[in-house]
Design a protein that fits this description.
There is one protein chain. The chain is of the alpha/beta class. It folds into two domains: about 1-515, 3-Layer(aba) Sandwich (Rossmann fold), CATH 3.40.50; about 520-645, ANL, C-terminal domain (GMP Synthetase, Chain A, domain 3, 2-Layer Sandwich). It contains 19 helices and 32 strands. Strands 6-5-18-17-19-20-21 form a seven-stranded mixed beta sheet, with helices on both faces. α18 (about 575-590) links the parallel β31 and β32 (about 595-600). α6 crosses α7 (about 150-160), α8 (about 175-185) crosses α9 and α13 crosses α15. The two termini are about 45 Å apart.
C-alpha cells in the first residue's frame, strides 16, 4: 500500500461531521459500525436505515412518513419516502439570521453580500410576484443567467411554489439554449442584460429575443440589469426588470410542500451526439444526496465559506447552492477564473477567507502549467478542502496541490454527474489522500466495476463504473420520454437492472477509485480497452504541452491511437518532441497506449462546462457530422481536425 500524500489530524477526525454521524449510526442502528469502511457497508446493506438516518441527521424540514422505500429491488422503479412531503426551497432557507448567506464577486470588481435574513426576504418578494403572474407547481421556470445572487433568488422563489427550475449559462448560443429550454416549454424566463468574460462584455438581450421568438411557451421575461444598468427592453415581449419583482411587503414565503419525488431541477446532457436529454430530478432525492455529500463527505459546516467555480449550466452550480441548506456562506464568482491573471482564484480564496473551494481538474492543471505557486504568494490560511471534478485529476496535479498550493489540505477529487445531480465517488475528511486516487465510494451508492460480460471486476481491474442498487437521486424521468425508453437506454441497456454510468474505472487497494475516462470514448487498439485519461496523464507532464485530446481512428481493420496536442506559444511539433511523447507514454503505460499519429492543433473543442469532447473530434476525423454544434463553447475548434493529411496514411 502506497504512502498517502495527506492524512487528517486526530482533531480533524474528531471534529468531522461524519464522526458524529458514525457515532449516531453505531448507537441507534448497528454497533459494528466503527470506521468509514464499516459505515459504507452499513449504508449499502441497510439502505432503509441509512437514508432515514440521513434525513434525520440532515435536519430535513418536512413530513417524513413511515415508509422509507418501496420496490427497492427495482432499478429503475424504486419509490423513496412515498408518504413524505417537503419543499426544496424551504430546506435551503431554513436559516433566517444575520450570518452571510451569499457573497459574490465578479471579474470586473462588482460584489456584495446578503445575510440569510435578507436572502429570505428577497426570495419572498420574487415568489410573491411569480404567484401573481400565475406560476403553479409543475410549471417550468428557466434562466439564461450568469452566476449571480439573482439567479439563486429566482430559483428559490420558483421552487418555493413547486415550479421546476432549469438554467443555462449565457455563453450558450441561441440554438444551444433553444435545444434545451425549447423541449421543456418554460412559462417564464429569467435573464441578464449582459455578462463579462475575460474582460469582454457580451450582450444577452439580442439572443434572448431570438430565444423568445422560437419558444412560444415563454410568456414573460425578467431581466437582471447586470453590467448594463439600464437595458433596453423594447426588443422583448412582456419584459420587466427583476428589481420590480422585489416586494418589500412580502415578508413570508408560502412554501408548497409536495411529494418526495416532485421534480425540482431539469438538467441536460451535453448534447454533443444529438438533442440534449432533459434529465429531471426530484426534490427529495436531490436534497438528501446533497446533504449527505456536503455534510458528511465534504464536512461542510455553518462557519464555512464555500465556493465552487462554476456556471449556471453545470450541475456543480446546483450542488454549490445546496450549501445554503447547511447554513454555510456560499461564495459566488462570475467571470473567467484566469482574469485578470492566472492567480485570480487564489486572490478570491484569501480575500473571502474561503475554507472549501472547488474547481475543474483542468483548472488545476492550467495553474500548474502557468507556474502559479500560491504557497509563495498567498496566505491560504483559511483553506482546508480543495474539491476537483469535471475530468480525472492527474497524479501530477495531486503533487502540484500539495507542493505548490498547500500541504495541509484535504484534496477531494469527486465524480458523478448531471445524470444523478450528485456523485458516485467522493472525498472524505477522515480518510487519507493517495496520489491519483479518488478517496472513497459514496455512502449509499452500491458501486461495482463490471466487465463486459456483466461479472464484477477484481481490485485494480479496470471496467465500467456501475451501481447495482437503487438510490434516491436517480432521475425521476427524462422530460418528454413518455415510455421511459430513452431513460432505460441511457443507463440500463448494457447491464439489465444495473446502472452503467459510462466511466471506465478501477477500485484500488486503498478502496479508492481511479477513472480512466469515458467508456464511450475508450480506445480499442487490437481489441484492448484503453482509457484516454491514462494517456493524458503522461503526455501533459511534458512542459511543452498545454493540453491534449486523444481519439481512436479506424484504420486497416483495427483502431489506431491518434493524439492531438496544443503546444506552448511559439513551439512546433518536431520529430524530437514526438519521440519524447511516445517515450513517456510507453515507459509509464503500455506499448498499446503509444499514439500511432501525433498532430499539433491550435485549440481543443469543449462543452460550455469545459469538458473536452472526444466523440465530436472522432466524428470529424472520420468525416461524420457533429449533430449539435451549439453544445460546444468553441465549435470553430473542430475545423482543426478536418481532412488532416497526417491521418490519411
Amino acid at each position: 500500500m502506497t504512502k498517502p500524500l495527506w492524512s487528517p489530524s486526530n482533531r480533524r477526525v474528531q471534529e468531522a461531521n461524519i464522526s458524529r454521524f458514525l457515532q449516531l449510526v453505531r448507537q441507534e442502528c448497528d454497533p459494528g459500525v466503527k470506521d468509514y469502511a464499516s459505515l459504507y457497508r452499513f449504508s449499502i446493506n441497510s439502505p432503509k436505515a441509512f437514508w432515514r438516518a440521513i434525513w434525520e441527521f440532515g435536519g430535513v424540514v418536512g413530513f417524513v412518513g413511515d415508509s422509507t422505500v418501496e420496490h427497492f429491488e427495482r432499478m429503475p422503479g424504486a419509490k423513496w419516502f412515498p408518504d413524505a412531503s417537503l419543499n426544496f426551497a424551504e430546506n435551503l432557507l431554513r436559516y433566517r439570521d444575520d450570518r452571510e448567506a451569499l457573497v459574490w464577486q465578479t471579474e470586473i470588481g462588482l460584489g456584495g453580500s446578503l445575510s440569510y435574513r435578507q436572502l429570505y426576504h428577497r426570495v419572498a418578494g420574487v415568489a410573491s410576484a411569480l404567484r401573481e403572474f400565475g406560476i403553479e407547481p409543475g410549471d417550468r421556470v428557466a434562466a439564461y443567467m450568469p452566476n449571480l445572487p439573482e439567479t439563486i433568488i429566482a430559483m428559490l422563489a420558483a421552487t418555493s411554489i413547486g415550479a421546476i427550475w432549469s438554467s443555462c449559462s449565457p455563453d450558450f448560443g441561441i440554438n444551444g439554449g433553444v435545444d434545451r429550454l425549447g423541449q421543456i416549454k418554460p412559462k417564464l424566463l429569467f435573464c441578464a442584460a449582459a455578462y463579462t468574460y475575460n474582460g469582454k462584455q457580451h450582450d444577452c438581450l439580442a439572443k434572448v429575443r431570438e430565444i423568445q421568438q422560437r419558444i412560444d411557451s415563454i410568456q414573460k421575461i425578467v431581466v437582471t440589469p447586470y453590467v448594463d444598468a439600464e437595458p433596453e427592453l423594447d426588443c422583448l415581449r412582456n419584459a420587466e426588470l427583476l428589481a420590480s419583482f422585489n416586494d418589500d411587503d412580502a415578508t413570508e414565503i408560502e412554501f408548497t410542500r409536495l411529494p418526495f419525488d416532485h421534480p425540482v431541477y431539469i438538467l441536460y446532457s451535453s448534447g454533443t451526439t444529438g438533442e440534449p436529454k432533459c434529465i429531471t430530478h426530484g426534490s427529495g432525492g436531490t436534497l438528501l444526496q446533497h446533504l449527505k455529500e456536503l455534510v458528511l463527505h465534504t464536512d461542510l459546516k455553518r462557519e464555512d465559506r464555500f465556493c465552487y467555480y462554476t456556471t449556471c449550466g453545470w450541475m456543480m452550480w446546483n450542488w454549490l447552492v445546496s450549501g445554503l441548506a447547511v447554513g454555510a456562506t456560499v461564495v459566488l464568482y462570475e467571470g473567467s477564473p484566469f482574469y485578470p491573471g492566472p492567480a485570480a482564484m487564489f486572490d478570491l480564496i484569501d480575500e473571502q477567507k474561503i475554507s472549501v473551494f472547488g474547481t475543474g481538474a483542468k483548472a488545476i492543471s492550467a495553474w500548474q502549467k502557468a507556474g502559479v505557486v500560491p504557497r509563495e504568494t498567498h496566505s491560504m490560511a483559511s483553506l482546508r478542502t480543495i474539491l476537483s471534478t469535471g475530468s480525472p485529476l492527474a497524479p501530477e496535479s495531486f503533487d502540484y496541490v500539495y507542493t505548490d498550493i498547500k500541504k495541509d489540505v484535504c484534496l477531494s477529487s469527486i465524480a458523478g454527474g448531471t445524470d444523478i445531480v450528485s456523485c458516485f465517488v467522493l472525498g472524505c475528511p477522515v480518510l487519507p489522500v493517495y496520489r491519483g486516487e479518488i478517496q472513497c465510494l459514496g455512502l449509499g451508492m452500491a458501486i461495482q466495476v463490471c466487465r463486459n460480460d456483466g461479472s464484477f471486476a477484481n481490485v485494480d481491474e479496470t471496467g465500467e463504473l456501475c451501481c447495482v442498487k437503487a438510490f434516491p437521486s436517480m432521475p425521476v424521468y427524462f422530460w418528454g420520454d413518455e415510455d421511459g425508453s430513452k431513460y432505460h437506454a441511457a443507463y440500463f441497456e448494457q447491464y439489465p437492472g444495473i446502472w452503467a454510468h459510462g466511466d471506465y474505472v478501477k477500485i484500488t487497494e486503498n478502496n479508492g477509485m481511479v477513472i480512466s475516462g469515458r467508456s464511450d470514448a475508450t480506445l480499442n487498439p487490437g481489441g484492448v480497452r484503453i482509457g484516454t485519461a491514462e494517456i493524458y496523464r503522461q503526455v501533459e507532464r511534458l512542459d511543452e504541452i498545454i493540453e491534449s485530446i486523444c481519439v481512436g481512428q479506424d484504420w486497416d481493420d483495427d483502431v489506431r491511437v491518434v493524439l492531438f496536442v496544443v503546444l506552448r506559444k511559439g513551439l512546433a511539433l518536431d520529430e524530437n518532441l514526438q519521440n519524447r511523447i511516445r517515450k513517456v507514454v510507453r515507459e509509464n503505460t503500455t506499448p498499446r497506449h503509444v499514439p500511432a499519429r501525433i498532430v499539433q492543433v491550435s485549440d481543443i473543442p469543449r462543452t460550455v462546462s469545459g469538458k473536452i469532447v472526444e466523440l465530436a473530434v472522432r466524428n470529424v476525423v472520420h468525416g461524420k457530422a457533429v449533430k449539435n454544434m451549439d453544445a460546444l463553447a468553441n465549435p470553430e475548434a473542430l475545423d482543426f481536425y478536418k481532412d488532416l493529411p497526417e491521418l490519411q496514411s
